[in-house]
Amino acid sequence: MSSVADQSDKKSFKKLGARHKARRRAVDLLFEAEARDIDPADLLSERVSLSVREESVAPVSPYTRVLVEGVADDLDRVDGTIESYLQDWTLGRLPAVDRAILRVAVWELFHANDVPPVVAVDEAVELAKELSTDDSPSFINGVLGQVVQVAPQVRAAAAATRSTVVADDEK
Of 19, 78, 79, 169, which sits 20 to 30 A from 56 (CA to CA)? Predict the structure, then answer.
């Protein structure tokens, strides 16, 4: 007979597993959009439609949608942030998969209030281990370790901006 704690651990594991798959699919979509030189939101829409029409195409999870749409909407700031922490590199010189992984992680650090920073960084490192070069996990960890330092200020500024917009809308 399993305990309540065991059941809770299994639910957490399943939730983390689903989020990991969603992140991986978001990285795949961002990578493909860049390779095809199309807007990630357009590719996402195409895949959602395709999954509705074709049973063989896996549905796009809600969290994958959040990630891809979020990165697409905030791409300039996300890329600018990444670029500012690259030493002796440019964003364009990075492997495309590393760019996609960093974009997802930076967006999560800035916007996903339900994702602890350590989880966003760990997930990015795990994705780099699965999808990229041997050097990529430590490189990505180093860049994100710096971004983590400014993420609370970015979140606070975003919250303040939202509060101002809401207050202005109520007038």
Answer: 19
